[in-house]
Amino acid sequence: MSMEFNDTREQLQKHSVDISTLKREIQELGKHKERLGGNITGIEERLNITERQLREKKAQLEYLETETKGAFTETQKLLKLYKDGLSHLNSTTQDLEDKVETRLHATKTDFGAKLKEVQNNSEALSAELKEQKAEAVKFMEETGSKFRHVDEQLKIQNTSVGQQNSDIHSLKNKYAGITNRLGSVKKTVGELKPEVDQLNARVNAKVAFSATIIESKDVFTGPQTGISKILIFNKVFTNIGNAYNSKTGLFTAPRKGVYHFSFMTFGYSTYTSGAILVKNGNYQVSTWEFKGPDSSDTTSNTVILELNHKDTVNIILWKGGKINTGVFSGFLVFPTK
Fold it and tell me: Are 31 and 24 in contact (CB under 8 A)?
């Protein structure tokens, strides 16, 4: 913009010189007019137009000069701001350089101290490694001595192992004979297994019970359940296997087998006495005693029954019969397949 301003100023000066030149020419023309005495009105008009144009250009140049000066002033302000910013930047850069220099100096000092410490540690480690190396050499020497001793012991043991192998071979022969004998024994045991199982079943099949009726206020009738007249022998003497239920009067076979049952009743002769042994609700054996001149009657019976698992056996009264007390007993003779 400064260069453009100078160029404009030069053009303005040049136009001023041209105007002065034209004025001198006009004066000379006026003088020439006077000398010539001719009519130069047309030339004067042209000169006036040219003068007006020059004045307009001069005004434009003056406006341009004013604008240029304003722009130049703004440019100078901006340059000043740039210079101030650059100065501040230089100052900040210097501060940063000082701080970095200080930091680098501290880092160098710290690094030097740490390096010295590492060197000291390295020297201590080297001394320790030398000591450990000496111990390792000593250990290797002792280990070598021990290995030589072990090698001698192994040679002695190899001789002993040879003798042991011979003994083992002999034992193997004896074991083969024992194995053959054992196979024969196993065969015999297999043949005897059914008999052994049967004996185990007989030994483990322990079922036996015996119970009586406790007299109650219902004398001559005994404990019974409803219409079925099932006698409940409610005082239990023995109940091995828990097959008899003193609440219901029922014996339930815990396994298939042959069972022995017996029962006895005691009553007075004023009523029909006796009872019936029932298997799964079906009559099996019974006792009977009519009314008579004697004061009391005793009846009894015994039966052996083959029962399946869960079969039931119990005692009931005859229709219209009454008893005072009684005993009901039974046991497993032997189980069956």
Answer: no
